[in-house]
Amino acid sequence: MTTVALLGNPNTGKTTLFNELTDKYAYVGNWEGVTVDKKLGRIRHSEMVVVDLPGIYSLTPITKDEAVACNYLLNDSPDMILNVTNASQLKRNMLLSIELLEFGRPVVLALNMIDDLKANGISYDFAELAKRLGCQVRATNARKKSGLDQLRQELLATPPTATQPLHLAYPAAVQAAITQASQALVTDYQLTPAFANWLAIQYLNRNQIVRRYANKHHLQPLLRHQQAYDDQNFEEQIFQTRLAFIDDTLTATTKYLHEVSNANLTAKIDRIVTHPVLGLPIFVGIFLLMFKLSFDWIGTPLSDGLDAFISGPLSATANQFLTSIGAIPFLKSLIVDGIIAGVGGVLSFIPQIFVLFACISVLEDSGYMARAALVTDRLMQLIGLNGKAFIPLIIGFGCNVTGIMAARTIEQPKERLVTTLISPFMSCSARLPIYGLFVAAFFQRNQALIVLSLYFLGIAVALLMAKIYQWVFKIRENTVFIIELPKYHVPRPDIIAMGTWEKGKGFIRKAGTVIFGGTVLIWLLSNLGPRGIVTNIDQSFSAAIGQFVLPLFRPIGITSWQTISALMTGVLAKEVISSSMIVLFHLSGQTGLIATFSSLFTPLSAYALLVFILIYAPCFATLAAIKAETNSKKWALYSVVSSTVIAYLAALLIYQVGSLFI
């Protein structure tokens, strides 16, 4: 079986290319030492396996994610390398390409986004470029699926055998050090000449992963000369040699097709959406439009129709079937009143959630998300972070777990910790079902606006806490924020569909696992008491627990113990709150629950409760992610306590102050 390592800079279309080349792929655990998905795919109609590695700018890593690629080359040694580049940014991309070409494995260079290059009036002499680099070069556009068949055939036709690595004309002193070290490594440690040569270059280039590898394997030809290498600043000499090679190569292979007008569409749009004054209002407006689509125009009507089906025909049919087969009342109640009503009540929000995820996928595929990080950079600098920290927060709108994992891209440990701790304040999709219930009950005319206010309140709380952490952790200097702004693209329907499904399938999976289990648990607690099965829910375990805690929650406007019991199940997963309420109030779906709310809450107390749900203790999955990323249980425990205290104080302030005016 031939293994192909897929490597490239971020934003080169690497993931799209991977999805198009492979007919199926799977996540097979994580890379060793980091919580990064290990993704493998098989090229169609072949036994060739593609390993999708994290996007990197060079093999000298800054973050844990970036170290994955270098560790893979050191320890797994693929048969071939597919290097994906952005054709219109080839000068920068080739810094990584040179490191891969020096590795000594067959390399196929994919010039992706070739249409953008042509739109700029530029082309390359592919034959001359391939000759100078010593590898096959193919032009592709993964978004439009052009050039993929030729690339696939090139991969299948390339023999997976060691090839002559690229040799650059390094300065005499550098080359002498490389030659001396590599020869000793071949003689004393039986390494292949190509691998020894690559190790020596990377070691001289101060690649810390390679230096740790050398220490681990006691590679004395490198270790005993480390100080001499560093004193002579070989790293800078290597960089300048590579840069000169890239300039010479591109000068010799670049062809200019025509003059390009300065009126570039991307630049025109960016002058508006990234404007220092207009940028943030546009950002807010885009999110308001997303919520209007999700809660007013498309999502809610579809959700209402699905709820009517689940609570009506489906529930009635199941009830009739169970009656016809003679099911005992306890079992019938569990299935109809517990599982179908509870889980079905949550599933009825699938249209709203999928519409929201589709909107986020459109923003990602169009290229706007990178602009959102840039627009918020100035705001983030006020709290000691930068725009890179806002990217995990945006991702957290989908799921706090993935948002926390995305914080690994932040280089500074203190900034990474702060971002991890504030990520749970982002309103994830799991909270949408309970939002949907309350806005439908109390804020029908302003559903999108109320949900938007909760999202931005979460951001405000996160920024406030980040400012406090900046003072506590003594973060005095901001790191520099550099981000590549990709060209704008018309979103592709299949990419939007795939992105929406990838984000939304976790919600459906939870319905069959965590939500199902939580619903059954709360049904059992509400139907069992100290004396066994109860017919009066006020004598159940749920009532005992809720009534015990209820006095603490009265100051924030909560007057029913059922609400308290439902909130407790939210630590399992926030989606369970909705299903728990349906079960605890003995209702058949969201329509009945919405009607019940009118006798239990006022608009003010309802909003205070939503604020509490927004901020209070993260779910178990988020806590596990915090523990994994910080390597500490104390930060996970701290997150539970601090979030709940902040949630209570925020809800208390809103309800008590609001009561003075309403």
TrEMBL record:
Subcellular localization, as worded in the UniProt entry: Cell membrane
InterPro entries: Fe2_transport_prot-B, Fe2_transport_prot_B_C, FeoB_Cyto, FeoB_GTPase, G_FEOB_dom, Gate_dom, P-loop_NTPase
Sequence positions that bind Mg(2+) 2: N19
Family: Belongs to the TRAFAC class TrmE-Era-EngA-EngB-Septin-like GTPase superfamily. FeoB GTPase (TC 9.A.8) family.
Protein name in UniProt: Ferrous iron transport protein B
Its biological purpose: Probable transporter of a GTP-driven Fe(2+) uptake system.
Pfam family, one: FeoB_N
Gene3D superfamilies on file: P-loop containing nucleotide triphosphate hydrolases (3.40.50.300)
Organism: Levilactobacillus suantsaiihabitans
Binding, GTP: 8-15, 33-37, 52-55, 112-115
Alphabetized UniProt keyword annotations: Cell membrane, GTP-binding, Ion transport, Iron, Iron transport, Magnesium, Membrane, Metal-binding, Nucleotide-binding, Transmembrane, Transmembrane helix, Transport
A GO CC annotation given for this chain: plasma membrane
Source superkingdom: Bacteria
PROSITE patterns assigned: G_FEOB (PS51711)
Binding annotation for Mg(2+) 1: T22
Domain FeoB-type G: 1-161
Transmembrane segments: 277-298, 338-363, 383-405, 417-442, 448-466, 507-525, 545-564, 635-657
Membrane topology annotation: Multi-pass membrane protein
Main localization, broad class: membrane
SUPFAM superfamilies the UniProt entry points to: P-loop containing nucleoside triphosphate hydrolases
Record-level Gene Ontology MF annotations: ferrous iron transmembrane transporter activity; GTP binding; metal ion binding
Keyword Ion transport attached: yes
